């Protein structure tokens, strides 16, 4: 496919997304009917689609309409690329621009300029204060690819050398001792030997920093209450060198976990009904995902006041359930990939009001503008053991 044909394909997929299709479904539908497209074409089309999703509002404003074609036009204008070099109608490229399209388009302002939903702007302003513009800007760009070195199987330098043999260049990332940022060859990671043998896992650097901050002591009984795909459960297992119990309200989300644990040499037990007492319960709760909207930009537009309110209720309920599973001196670790105060510090404060005596021992907010995803954690323990 020519570069122009890739843009045309992306524009059509964006129209399907605008009509209500999920991005992955729309991409899959296109893939199935486009057998002529090679792997590089598919990757390029996907990148264009996700670039437009990250800049859904500003690309439409600059492109002059709420269509896939206009959004692609807007992205080109934002990048300083002359659209006439690609909108030329040749070889399935977009048709040349009309006079009306040339005249259309304006710089957005307010929430549209930041590529944020209007309703969420006040929440973000309160949560981030003067850091809002830099966070919003970070969320408009592609996320770096990070790997976690599985220190049960090798050191960071050994992992870098193994990855280099497969043409993947990395550099250590300061957020965590286990973190590598992929600087070239990211698309080869899943086929690399280091990945197949469990020496590295895909995991965001801030997510690794969160796992590194948890007070895991040898012999501790640990539960990952919202284990999902198990990224944090595996990272905890590597640190603890003991068994991690993994639970999720939706057990299908953990279906790959036993195989991933085997590959990593981790000891992990999936439990459907956790039985306390535990020494540490990790609650990596469902959240807005606002800290990771670079990776999942659809989340930015699908979040509504209604489902946000429901998510806040679920988070509180999970914290209450987890507290009941802990030993008297046990640690309750609350984690979100969010930058929004209502689901971070406010949620923890509300828990403390419902459960007097719990104290926050350690807490930190990571922001996407610091390099990795936005994450929040609070490590809590009961203070009134007497
Ligand atoms: C942020 S994801 C977990 C990601 C995972 N810990 C990781 O590191 O890859 C949140 C998970 O919480 C689960 N969940 C939602 N409601 C829950 C509940 N009431 N109890 C336990 N898990 C729940 C979801 O199914 C989802 O897998």
From TrEMBL:
Pfam families in the cross-refs: Methyltr_RsmB-F (PF01189), RsmF-B_ferredox (PF22458)
Presence of keyword Transmembrane helix: no
PROSITE patterns per record: SAM_MT_RSMB_NOP
Record has S-adenosyl-L-methionine as a keyword: yes
Protein keywords: Methyltransferase, RNA-binding, S-adenosyl-L-methionine, Transferase
Residue sites binding S-adenosyl-L-methionine per the record: 248, 284
GO biological process terms held by the UniProt record: RNA methylation
Chain coiled-coil ranges: none
Similarity-based family: Belongs to the class I-like SAM-binding methyltransferase superfamily. RsmB/NOP family.
Protein name, per record: 16S rRNA (Cytosine967-C5)-methyltransferase
Organism encoding this protein: Salipiger marinus
């Amino acid at each position: 496919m020519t570069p122009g044909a890739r843009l045309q394909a992306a524009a059509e997929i964006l129209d399907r997304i605008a009509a209500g299709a999920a991005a992955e479904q729309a991409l899959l539908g296109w893939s199935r009917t486009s057998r002529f497209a090679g792997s590089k074409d598919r990757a390029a089309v996907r990148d264009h689609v996700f670039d437009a999703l990250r800049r859904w509002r500003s690309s439409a404003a600059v492109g002059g309409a709420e269509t896939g074609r206009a959004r692609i036009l807007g992205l080109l204008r934002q990048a300083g690329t002359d659209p006439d070099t690609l909108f030329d109608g040749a070889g399935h490229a977009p048709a040349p621009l009309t006079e009306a399209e040339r005249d259309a388009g304006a710089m957005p302002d307010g929430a549209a300029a930041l590529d944020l939903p209007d309703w969420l702007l006040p929440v973000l302003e309160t949560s981030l204060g003067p850091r809002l513009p830099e966070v919003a800007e970070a969320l408009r760009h592609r996320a770096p690819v990070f790997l976690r070195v599985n220190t049960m199987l090798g050191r960071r330098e050994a992992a870098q050398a193994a990855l280099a043999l497969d043409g993947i260049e990395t550099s250590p990332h300061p957020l965590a001792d286990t973190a590598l940022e992929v600087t070239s060859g990211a698309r080869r990671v899943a086929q690399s030997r280091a990945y197949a043998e469990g020496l590295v896992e895909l995991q965001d650097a801030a997510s690794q920093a969160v796992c590194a901050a948890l007070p895991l002591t040898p012999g501790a009984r640990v539960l990952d209450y919202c284990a999902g795909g198990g990224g944090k459960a595996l990272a905890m297992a590597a640190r603890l060198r003991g068994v991690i119990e993994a639970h999720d309200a939706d057990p299908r989300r953990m279906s790959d976990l036993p195989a991933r644990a085997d590959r990593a040499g981790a000891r992990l037990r999936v439990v459907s009904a956790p039985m306390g007492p535990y020494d540490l319960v990790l609650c990596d709760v469902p959240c807005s995902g606002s800290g990771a909207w670079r990776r999942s930009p659809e989340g930015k537009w699908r979040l509504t006041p209604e489902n946000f309110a429901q998510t806040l209720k679920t988070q509180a309920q999970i914290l209450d359930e987890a507290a009941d599973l802990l030993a008297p001196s046990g640690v309750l670790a609350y984690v979100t990939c969010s930058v929004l105060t209502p689901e971070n510090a406010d949620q923890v404060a509300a828990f403390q009001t419902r459960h007097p005596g719990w104290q926050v021992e350690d807490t930190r907010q990571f922001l996407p503008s610091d390099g990795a995803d936005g994450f929040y954690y609070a490590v809590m323990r009961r203070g009134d053991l007497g």
